[in-house]
Amino acid sequence: MTSSRKTHVLLAVILVGFIVVGGLWYVGQQQARSTAASSDASASPSVAADVGDDVEPVQPGETGPAAAPDAVVAQEAAPKAIHSPDKVSRDIALSPNQCKVRTLNAAKGEVLPDPSCTPGAIDPAVSEENIGSTICRAGYTATVRAPVSDTDKVKKLSLQEYGLVPVSSTEFDHLISLQLGGTNAVSNLWPEPNREGAPGTTNPKDAIETRLNKAVCSHRIALADAQKAIAHNWVTAEKELGL
């Protein structure tokens, strides 16, 4: 073999070597890219789960999407049960000026208590099963009403807690009335301002309490539903109950 021919063969072998090495490098790069893509694909589901299906992340200065109409709304807790027929149970401790009434319509006497101070409380001795011998029996409330000597003391403190001055038309009222199974407890008593110009303590809430009592006693509504509705908002209780 001549020297020239040997040189050509050597160059060919070197060229083939370069081609093989280049091919192996290209295959390696493609495999690396494929592995990276697979890793990204496997990670994306968890990211989507954090954000939420079809929901864009809320950006600074933006508000989130409105809640769906059928979104689950947390139910209000049932009033706590306290049996205290002969005196006022001081079940919570309040400070002067801690509470504020919520005035919806002063002219009509539509005023609500502070829910954090007066959430309402019921007597566990009254139930749906025994309403015939309790709240639906004439004279029942007189048997469970706390004595004036006790309520007068608590009324004075309650006025201070609500930051109110004594007015002759203000009633120291049970939020859940006795005729609806309410109880004598600080958490169920509040100084209820009357409508403007009222000559006495008779107020619009009294009539609603009586109508709810009749609805319960005629089995048009459940006792527990009436108690929750009047504790939530006595002004809208009847509407809330479909009456």
Structural account:
The protein is elongated and about 130 Å long. It is built from six helices and six strands. The strands form three sheets. Strands 1-4 form a two-stranded parallel ribbon. Strands 2-3 form a two-stranded antiparallel ribbon. The protein folds into two domains: 1-48; 80-240, no CATH class. With 243 residues, it is mainly alpha-helical. The longest helix has 49 residues, at 3-51. Residues 34-75 have low confidence and may be disordered. Helices cover 40% and strands 8% of the residues.
Which helices and strands, and how do they pair?
Blueprint: H1 3-51, E1 80-81, E2 102-105, E3 110-112, E4 121-122, H2 140-144, H3 148-161, E5 171-174, E6 189-192, H4 204-217, H5 223-232, H6 237-240
Parallel strand pairs: 1-4
Antiparallel strand pairs: 2-3, 5-6
Tell me briefly what this model is.
Helix content is 40%, strand content 8%. It has helices spanning 3-51, 140-144, 148-161, 204-217, 223-232, 237-240; strands at residues 80-81, 102-105, 110-112, 121-122, 171-174, 189-192.
